[in-house]
Design a protein that fits this description.
five-stranded parallel beta sheet; 9 helices
Length: 373
């Protein structure tokens, strides 16, 4: 049972297609019909990619591997009795289950956030943002507020500006701002990257409100705890990760934030039949590992091997060791990107070409070969 089709599960289906598993039934539970590569979403919003270039048809991916696609979300898991409950009320049993459902945006309990803010997932939400940006640009007025000063929020703010500018000079009349609760933009990777991100925002007329916190959202504005009201026609919710609430009730060990605790085999620390990868998992032996797409991708091959061995009743040998440093490529919405490695960061068009090649290669790996070969 594959709950969700996060990046890591694509590698599991690839291994299944390549014959790495003993004969078994594999069920993929995922309500959305498309797997969308999150790293390309800002480029899609900014007009660089068509939807078909950053998405995979889940029905086709499952059919090629021999898996069964169940177009419903998992809303509950019972580790003791080995079943999942789907959003239509059905319960499906499993011998081995892997969870890769990603995370939810944190802070949606903020008054008005669920009603008036738009999260970044699924893609249909971003499609709504794109349509509304086009409308704002044609009106030559309005304001867009992105809540969250992490990389996702920054990329979406820069992409929003790029999308608005496609309407011509009128797009610059629309205010685009980031509301960031931290004193500076994304300092997790050092001050050099933070400065380059701030420079990119300044150059593309994206305002940054640092060290402020949102207290509420309405149809017309965003309220801050310092008493100010920021007029907003579109509110994009791009905060940090939060765990799906049902994970706490699953019978699995979870960390303080509700993410599944796993060992070096990406196996639950309390249930040998359940595995987890990507944002929804926390490594018990490396709990500070960032919840970022690059880690979810690296988890894919060892997860596939662990699942294949578990189904055969073998001792697990695949081990996932998170890298200490990882390459970050941030699309700045102007044909350039920022490349960051450890404390070093640099911006240029070459970095965007590099990012483009990496992103396209990831999608191509799991796309159906031409002519069915």
């Amino acid at each position: 049972m594959l709950a969700g089709l996060g990046h890591a599960h694509l590698f599991v289906l690839e291994a299944l297609q390549n014959g790495a598993f003993a004969p078994c039934e594999v069920i993929v539970c995922n309500a959305e019909p498309l797997h969308v590569y999150s790293g390309m979403v800002p480029g899609w919003l900014g007009g660089r990619y068509a939807e078909s270039e950053l998405s995979l048809d889940i029905a086709s991916v499952c059919a090629r591997s021999g898996a069964t696609w169940e177009p419903h979300h998992v809303v509950a898991l019972n580790a003791d009795q080995s079943f999942v409950r789907l959003d239509d009320g059905r319960e499906l049993t499993f011998d081995v289950c892997s969870v890769a459902i990603g995370s939810k945006p944190a802070g949606l309990e903020t008054p008005g956030a669920r009603e008036h803010a738009t999260p970044l997932k699924p893609l249909q939400q971003v499609e709504t943002i794109k349509q509304r940006l086009t409308t704002l640009g044609s009106f030559r007025s309005g304001a867009v507020t992105i809540v969250g000063g992490g990389l996702a929020g920054i990329e979406m703010a820069l992409a929003a500006r790029a999308q608005l500018r496609q309407t011509g000079d009128r797009g610059d009349a629309v205010t685009v701002r980031i509301v960031n609760r931290e004193p500076q933009l994304y300092v997790a990777r050092g001050h050099r990257l933070s400065r380059l991100l701030a420079d990119a925002c300044a150059q593309l007329a994206v305002r940054v409100e640092n060290d402020v916190e949102v207290s509420g959202v309405s149809a017309r504005d965003v309220a801050l705890r310092d008493g100010r009201q920021l007029a907003s026609d579109i509110v994009i919710w791009a905060t940090g990760p939060a765990a799906a609430p049902w994970l706490r009730d699953s019978g699995l060990a979870v960390d303080a934030s509700g993410f599944v605790l796993v060992n070096e085999h990406l196996q639950s620390t309390t249930c040998r039949r359940v595995f987890a990868a990507g944002d929804c998992a926390t490594l018990a032996y490396a709990p500070d590992t960032p919840k970022a797409g690059v880690y979810a991708v690296r988890m894919g091959p060892p997860l596939a091997q662990s699942l294949a061995q578990a189904l055969r009743g073998e001792l697990l040998s695949a081990q996932y060791q998170p890298q200490r440093r990882w390459l970050t490529l941030v699309n700045t919405g102007d044909g350039r990107a920022i490349a960051s490695w450890g404390p070093f960061a640099i911006r240029g068009k070459w970095a965007m070409r590099w990012k483009d090649r990496i992103d396209r290669a990831f999608i191509a790996r799991f796309r159906e070969p031409p002519n069915g070969i």
